[in-house]
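WARN no homologs supplied; continuing
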Amino acid sequence: MSQEKVDYKKQKKSGRKEEVKKERMIRRLWAVCAVVICVGLVGFIGYSLYGVIEENRMAAAIENMKTTDIDISAIRDYQNSLSADEDDAE
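OK structure emitted
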């Protein structure tokens, strides 16, 4: 081998530890980013599904509600008589 090749290989070998550390750090950073993105997506999907389920449950509860009709004409008559009494008092 020529001296240039030997020098090149020595230089490459001397910087190998730092290069390996850098590659590991980048790989870990990508893994952490992927986990954060996945957790965010799962959380968003779960929250959205929860909202849809709750909306459907409330709609079903409203459909199943019983309604009662109330005749409030007696109350209106009473209120009208009170306001008529106030007008007569003046």
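The chain has three helices and no strands.
OK
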